[in-house]
Amino acid sequence: MTRDVRKNGVAADAMRDLNRRSFMTFACAAGLTSIGVLPAFAATPSLGFDELYGKISVLGLEFSPRVKELKGNTISMRGFMAPPLKAEAKFFVLSSTPMSICPFCSSDADWPDDIVVVYLKSAQTFVQYNAPIDVTGTLEVGSWTDPETGFVSLLRITGARFSKS
């Protein structure tokens, strides 16, 4: 009987030490994550085209609370790449629906309201206009004019990368 108690006693001590170690490891990792030393394991928030605007006022479209909340954060969006202005461009227009014509080759009246300009982190090969893609990058909000092209945008995803969906 003493032998069984000793085994159980040893097992209980080992389990207590393991629990103590697990707790300390978790506590340290949580602390380092909160100060930015270790990355948080949260998923990148996704933003849909139907979440871009909240309402239409006399001043035009108003950004949704979700867009305002995600401003400056890394987000992901799914959509379609409009045909780029030129093959070596480092940006493109993301749209909720496939656009078979170059948006820069037509008047802005032909453009959908829900476009987002995507500035790539590094050059990537563009895809067909009808292939859905996932884009990840930093959401920028507000009117901005690209100094190189003169293109004006209200919503941008910068430092972006994309992949086929």
Structure description:
InterPro entries: TAT_signal (IPR006311). It comes from Pseudochelatococcus contaminans. This is DUF3299 domain-containing protein. This protein has 165 residues and is an alpha+beta fold. It folds into 2 domains: 1-42, no CATH class; 49-164, OB fold (Dihydrolipoamide Acetyltransferase, E2P) (Beta Barrel). Helix content is 24%, strand content 33%. It contains 2 helices and 7 strands, in the order αββαβββββ. The strands form 2 sheets. A 5-stranded mixed barrel has the order 3-4-5-7-6. A hairpin with a 6-residue loop joins β6 (132-145) and β7 (152-164). The model is unreliable at 1-7 and 22-38 (pLDDT under 50).
Largest sheet: 5 strands, mixed, barrel
Strand content: 25-35%
> What percent of the residues sit in helical stretches (DSSP H or I)?
10-25%
CATH topology name of the largest domain, in short, is: OB fold (Dihydrolipoamide Acetyltransferase, E2P)
Structural domains: how many: 2
Mean pLDDT: 78
Distance from first to last alpha carbon: 64 Å
Helix- and strand-based class? alpha+beta
Radius of gyration: 25 Å
Low-confidence blocks of residues = 1-7, 22-38
Under the CATH scheme, which class of the largest domain? Mainly Beta
Number of strands: 7
CATH architecture descriptor of the largest domain = Beta Barrel
Major sheet strand order: 3-4-5-7-6
Element string (H = helix, E = strand): HEEHEEEEE
Count the helices. How many?
2
What is the 3D form?
globular
Protein name: DUF3299 domain-containing protein
